[in-house]
Amino acid sequence: MPKLWNETVEEHRRTVHATILDTTAALVAERGMGVTMSQVAQAVGIGRATLYKYFPDVQAIMVAWHERQVSDHLRQLTEAVARCTQTDERLRTVLSVYAELSSTGRGDDPDRRHASGGGHRTELAVPLHRAEHVHQARRHLHELMTQAIAAAADEGVARDDVPAAELATYCLHALAAAGDLPTRAARDRLVAVTLAGLRPVAA
User: Fold this and answer.
1) N or C: which end of the chain has fewer CB within 10 A?
2) Each residue of 3-28: b (16+ CB within 10 Å) or e?
3) How many CB atoms lie within 10 A of CB 39?
4) CA R_g for the chain
């Protein structure tokens, strides 16, 4: 099979895969996890047999959708931090971007939008939070945050009386609250409070 044909087939598969993720997320946002594979196939415009070649069920589709969202957010955070040239700027950036992504992640979660009161529906929340990609993302986030805090502590712009890894855990938990804040201004205030907790303690 010619190389060009192989590339065309792979591109088609990637397009179908992405369409399945986006379409299922939209359906779940509208109808909840009661969405069926038949409904997904019809909305995507493919046969059920074809859909099953990609995913075994709707839950698997949503886990894949969530993994893509998490990967995109990690990439955005890593790129934002890499653009910083000053240690203090890097620390503030990692906090601010993480807060914004925490908020965006909540807003983009179709199951969260569908659920009353903004909470995760149990049938999707459990597999998502137990998925391996979530654990890997948390480890990556914690490492990125720890490095930024440690570098700031070395230059005297962050406290060094508490291990950087412990401060990173504090920041990640504190900024997770950004998902429940309605405005950018409120999230900025949360970042400012979190950053204040990282500053060196006066003698």
Assistant:
1) C
2) eeeeeeeeeeeeebeeebbebbbebb
3) 15
4) 20
Cβ of 119: how many Cβ atoms within 10 Å?
A: 10
**For domain 59-198, is the CATH number 3.40.350.10?**
no
For the chain, which residues make up each domain, given as ranges?
A: 59-198
Amino acid at 46: I
pLDDT tens by residue, 95-154: 999 898 887 644 444 444 433 333 334 445 545 556 677 778 888 889 999 999 999 999
78/136 Cα distance (integer angstroms): 15
Cα 154 from chain centroid (whole Å): 29
> Cα separation of 188 and 203, whole Å?
28
Read off the pTM. Answer: 0.71
- What per-residue string of b and e applies to 85-110 under the rule 16 or more CB within 10 Å gives b? eebbebbbbbbbbbbbbbbbbbebbb
